[in-house]
Amino acid sequence: MTRVKSTLLAISFLFSLAGCDSRVLWRDAPYQVYWIDNSPYKLGYDLGNGGVISKVDYVNAVGSDSSYVVVRSHKLGSDQSLYYFIDKAVDSAYKKDSVEGPFSREAYRVLKGKKNLPDFEKEF
Fold first, then answer.
1. Are 69 and 86 in contact (CB under 8 A)?
2. Which residues make Cβ contacts (< 8 Å) with residue 103, sequence separation at least 6?
3. Short-list 78, 114, 84, 112, CA closest to 97
4. d(CA 21, CA 80)
5. CA atoms within 13 A on the CB side of 22
């Protein structure tokens, strides 16, 4: 009986470890693209110690330079991608209006030229 209890306890412990999974796929500190429990990829602002504030959902491409972070987002079932950018000089973890967008592909292309936004460096 003790052996059965020990086995059940060990199995229970292993399942508890599998309950929450996450991974960082791209990083330009403090920004990161991550997922939690197979959720859609998100761009977030890393607070340290495991804390992240989500900025953009459904991320499928990202890039950055010293001034900007750029994001392409595509929600499953949608027929178009949406584009965003963040000006690093004015952004902070808790600033809600620091994400510019969404923009259409054409509007983003015009903004990219005007603001010299970086290219997407990673696609998911």
1. yes
2. 82, 83, 84, 111
3. 84
4. 29
5. 12
Query: How many structural domains compose the chain?
Result: 1
Is 8 within a domain? no
Q: What is the pTM of this model?
A: 0.81
| AA identity, residue 47 | L
Task: Report if residue 93 sits inside a domain.
Answer: yes
Which amino acid type is present at position 91?
A: D
Tens of pLDDT, residue by residue over 70-89, are: 999 999 889 999 999 999 99
Domain range spanning residue 79?
20-123
**CB under 8 Å, gap of 24 or more: what pairs does 48-57 form?**
53/93, 53/94, 55/31, 55/86, 55/98, 55/99, 56/84, 56/99
